[in-house]
Amino acid sequence: MRPRRSNSGAEWSRRAGIRTRSRPTPCGSSWPSWRSVEQEKAQNQELQTEQEKLLAQREDVSSQLQEVNRANSRLLEQLTEQGQEKDKLQQELEETWKTADKRKAMLDELAIDVAQEKLRHKEELQAQIQSMEGTKGWFERRLKEAEETAEKSALEHQEQLEQSAQIELCKAKLKLSASEERHLLAVMKLREEHHMDSLGVLGIMAGEMEKEKASHGDEMRRVESHNLALKEQVEANALREQLAQLEKSVEQEKAQNQELQTEQEKLLAQREDVSSQLQEVNRANSRLLEQLTEQGQEKDKLQQELEETWKTADKRKAMLDELAIDVAQEKLRHKEELQAQIQSMEGTKGWFERRLKEAEETAEKSALEHQEQFWVGCKGFFYLSGRECFGCSTVLVRAVMVLLPLGCLTQQS
């Protein structure tokens, strides 16, 4: 609220001048009265008191301004501190986002690696299973072939034995030599195939000043009545002498009043300036408080975001740990499955090897028995025929010369 200016000095001087002009002097000329002089003195005193009050108010306002400046400096310091804290929080938030992105990338890479590892394990298992199935089929085929050859050899052996008993010795020998050669060729093929696998105050002061002016007006009226009684008793010469002095003093007082009024106007202008400055300071303080509240809210938001990012980072870390545990368990399970499959395949391999070995042994035994029976038959034939089959002796000798090294080779193998 803008203070109302009081022109009390000018009004009192105007009223005093009118009264002095309206009142004629005993000599017939206008002259100032004692009442106007006392009014001027009272006005000067009032102006001095008002000036002192204004000076005191000015000092108070200056002290308030100093306090406001201090408060502004403190608020600025707080703002700078909060700005620094905000920057720190932003940096921390950026760092946490970076760490979260890194953890997310690591998690994605780990998931990709896990998928690749699973695929590789699956392919390896499929390849091993296929290879094992291939070896199993090969062993089964070889075993089947060995059994078939053994059965064929046994059948041929029996047939040859029956034919040797019924048919002539030469045809039996030739058939036995041919079956022996086929048997030896089959054995040699088996051996060759076997070897080839392996993330407000002025209103109150104006009211007080108006009250004081009213009281001073009452006093001035009393003084005027007293002065009128005194002036009728005073002589004109003394009045004229006093008039000159009073005019001088009035002029001085007017000059002083003008100076005081100018000073008062200056003080009022300063007061208005100070009040405007205070208003601006209050606005600045309100803006600073708004900024502080906004920064506090932003700080809270940043803290919440930071907490949320930490929570998400912890969740991602827990997920990463769980995924690592699952991966380790999956690897261990794959390893155990591989070991079990390898053991089972090794067991089947051993079984097929044993079966193949047994088949080879049975084939060798059957071949040896066949040779023994052949030699026994040959001896009996030579013993029985004697000289009658001398023409066929050359053929038999040649057959024996061919079959002997084959029998030795079978025995050595």
TrEMBL record:
<dbReference type="InterPro" id="IPR026204">
    <property type="entry name" value="GRIPAP1"/>
</dbReference>
<protein>
    <submittedName>
        <fullName>Uncharacterized protein</fullName>
    </submittedName>
</protein>
<feature type="region of interest" description="Disordered">
    <location>
        <begin position="1"/>
        <end position="59"/>
    </location>
</feature>
<dbReference type="GO" id="GO:0098998">
    <property type="term" value="C:extrinsic component of postsynaptic early endosome membrane"/>
</dbReference>
<dbReference type="GO" id="GO:1905244">
    <property type="term" value="P:regulation of modification of synaptic structure"/>
</dbReference>
<dbReference type="GO" id="GO:0099158">
    <property type="term" value="P:regulation of recycling endosome localization within postsynapse"/>
</dbReference>
<feature type="coiled-coil region">
    <location>
        <begin position="229"/>
        <end position="348"/>
    </location>
</feature>
<dbReference type="GO" id="GO:0098887">
    <property type="term" value="P:neurotransmitter receptor transport, endosome to postsynaptic membrane"/>
</dbReference>
<dbReference type="GO" id="GO:0098978">
    <property type="term" value="C:glutamatergic synapse"/>
</dbReference>
<feature type="compositionally biased region" description="Polar residues">
    <location>
        <begin position="1"/>
        <end position="10"/>
    </location>
</feature>
<feature type="compositionally biased region" description="Basic and acidic residues">
    <location>
        <begin position="50"/>
        <end position="59"/>
    </location>
</feature>
<dbReference type="GO" id="GO:0098837">
    <property type="term" value="C:postsynaptic recycling endosome"/>
</dbReference>
<dbReference type="GO" id="GO:0099152">
    <property type="term" value="P:regulation of neurotransmitter receptor transport, endosome to postsynaptic membrane"/>
</dbReference>
<keyword id="KW-0175">Coiled coil</keyword>
